[in-house]
Amino acid sequence: MKTIVKAMALLLIGATSCSNYNADLIIHNARIYTVNDSFELASTLVVKDGKFIAVGEDDLRNRYSAAATLDLKGIPVYPGLIDAHCHFYQLGLAQEHVDLRGSKSVEEVISRLKAFEQTSSTNVLMGRGWDQNLWEEKEFPTKEMLDKAFPNKLVVLERVDGHAAYVNSNVLSAAKITKDTKVAGGEVILANNEPTGILIDKASDLAYAILPEPTRAEQIVALQKAEKIALANGLTTVDDAGLNRAQLELIDSLHRTNDLKIRVYGMISNTPENLAHYLEKGITQTDRLTIRSVKVYADGALGSRGAALKRSYADAKKNKGLFITSPEKIEELAYILAKKGFQMNTHAIGDAANEVVLNAYEKALSVNPDPRWRIEHAQVVDKVDLEKFGAKILPSVQPTHATSDMEWADERLGKKRIANAYSYKELLDWSGKIALGTDFPVERVSPIHTYYSAVARKDLNGNPSGGYQMDNALSRSEALKGMTKWAAYANFEEEEKGSIEVGKVADFVLLTNDIMVLNDSELLATEVLATFLNGEMVYQRKQ
To answer: What's the pLDDT at 9?
Structure first.
């Protein structure tokens, strides 16, 4: 660590004595993973005007002088990491909500809410991250405990996957949710013919609709908080899976004033208003924001039994989940987007949802040579449907889902069907490329966890010792490509980023350990030392 501190100090000291600079930054004596086509290693990179102008060996120092020079003394360098599927804006908003991840009971959920209540005067309690699958009683909670604990407040608690909400009676009353409420693409869970307080998928929108919208100032703070977290984790591009027009325009305005630096691949939320505007406007791209894709929800999530399955859930007979967007609407939208040249990125968890989306894609893309349409999650894919993936249809997956879900997923799917889940290696074999993300804040903001889960297929406690369904683990190089080069390709941005090559933007990250050679057991100890955007150090680990 002393070596790292010394190396970083050299960068902060910065300027050489020469005033005739032909570069802005030289990094040398490093172990640089270029992730170019040959997956070459280099020791030196040179940056000018935010781009790599030379990549190679230490003799480059004889050809360039720079305002700042950094001797890394063997520290590993990687292309800037790309999170191919996350909820960046929601992460920022969640910083003001109660973190319920890891709670072991509904009593612990209430305890955390009570602790937060002591620090806030708000009339609305919001939280995210509860998961009944981690509780001794694995059933959904009911409103009565919230009603007793918070009789005078509105309480809305989002499930860890974002596909269910747990609310109290005050919310049900304010939202006019009754036993007779029906919602296309969602469900109000009943017991004794009355709402229990659990709202699945689109039904939860009714609860969120009664809550106050964050002000512009609050939205800006949220985005900047999310950026700080992302940069500290080595992320230089985030693919936000679902933003409306106002949010996209706010991000663009903050980019233009340099109040937000991180690059955003913004997927347009599938609403009539958003589509009317952006399909008319056409593809939009700046040096930091790309808008050329539409995020669609085919079904819900496995943990809340909202994923659409071909056969009933193994632990809930007669329940096959649900489609948030009907198969007819998915096919209709696919034709519209294909004609307009927009990318379609569809959330599909269950095998029925994946089948419907793959079939719709195949029909709509018959005349489009390079659409790069994505299936987000591709979590449970029937073997007969795998071959529908290919150069035109790419999987965008989150490896930590496999290791987070493995304790209970086989109960949902059964021993035979679980073999079709989290099949990342098979998906890669069919498509040739696979994009990796975290899905934060569903999972934690950690590309290191993504990488570890992809290659070791273990949870953060190292279980199972032999890895989970290891025939679908990715190699080290495949996992790194999925977080860099292939993720950039899935964004149509492989010419600008995703590898350390001449002409590309100088986005890169320094790690404390070389993740390409570490033992699996040592990977989780790796930390981000520094993050660079356009050659500018935008994050440095405190020593």
So the answer is: 54
Q: What is the pLDDT of residues 31-42, one digit of tens each?
A: 999 999 999 999
Q: Using DSSP bridges, classify how beta strands 186-191 and 194-201 pair: parallel, antiparallel or unpaired.
A: antiparallel
pLDDT band of residue 2 (cuts 50, 70, 90) is low
325: CB partners within 8 A, 6+ apart? 185, 270, 296, 297, 298, 333
Range of the structural domain that residue 47 is part of: 1-80+499-543
Nearest to 170, CA basis, from 125, 106, 200, 135: 125
Same domain for 121 and 195, yes or no, is yes
Compute the average pLDDT of residues 166-191: 96
Q: How many domains are contained in the chain?
A: 2
Nearest of 80, 83, 69, 75 to residue 511 by alpha carbon: 75
Instruction: Examine the domain organization and report whether 158 and 102 are in the same domain.
Output: yes
- Of 208, 238, 270, the residue at which a domain comes to its end is 208
Query: What 8-state DSSP symbol labels residue 380?
Result: B
Last residue of a domain, one of 193, 208, 223: 208
User: Which ranges constitute the DSSP H helices of 257-350?
Assistant: 272-281, 327-340
Q: Are residues 22 and 76 in the same domain?
A: yes
CB neighbours (10 Å) of residue 363? 12
Instruction: Yes or no: say if 403 and 457 are a contact pair by the CB < 8 Å rule.
Output: yes
Look at 182 and 120; give whichever has higher pLDDT.
182
pLDDT digits (tens, 9 = 90+) for 115-165: 999 988 889 999 999 999 999 988 999 999 999 999 999 999 999 999 999
- Phi then psi for residue 322, to 5 deg, are -150, 155
CB atoms within 10 A of CB 153: 16
Average pLDDT over the chain reads 95
Using CA atoms in the order 422, 428, 429, 433, what is the torsion angle rounded to 10 degrees? 170
- What is the model's pLDDT at position 18? 46
Mean pLDDT over 63-83 rounds to: 97
Report phi then psi at 262, rounded to 5.
-65, 145
Q: Specify the CATH number for the domain of residue 116.
A: 3.10.310.70
From CA 84, how far away is CA 493, in angstroms rounded? 12
Domain membership of residue 216 (yes or no) is no
Does residue 474 lie in a domain region? no
On whether both 107 and 141 belong to a single domain, the answer is: yes
Domain membership of residue 34 (yes or no) is yes
